[in-house]
Amino acid sequence: MPPKNNKGSQKDSGKASAASDSKNTGKGKGKAGKDDKKDDGKSKPATAINARHILCEKHSKKEEAVTKLKEGAKFDDVAKEFSEDKARQGGSLGWKTRGSLDAAFEKAAYELEPSTTANPKYVEVKTGHGYHIIMVEGRR
Asked: Which pTM does this prediction carry?
């Protein structure tokens, strides 16, 4: 009979460790919540982005610029060649805060991951100004 008592006490200690496991699970859930943001593919919410763009009035010109980017050209070089705004700095718009850009442009830009001009991650958007190819260099 004494072994049964030992097993009983082991079960009790097992319950205690299960209770402590549930505490650990609680902590794990908090971490999982943070990981969920990463799973969405979204970066932490930014209040400002460092953006570049290429603005083309005509769709065909925008398509030429996209072709150059797909061929491996640097974003800033393509911006200097194709952009129809004052893109003297390779399409750089500088740091832009939320609410300071066209709504469609801003929505697309804030969803982009930061990248480099040599290997840009970009998105195409049409606004009242024309066709944009947008990339983001930084977030804060």
From this structure: 0.68
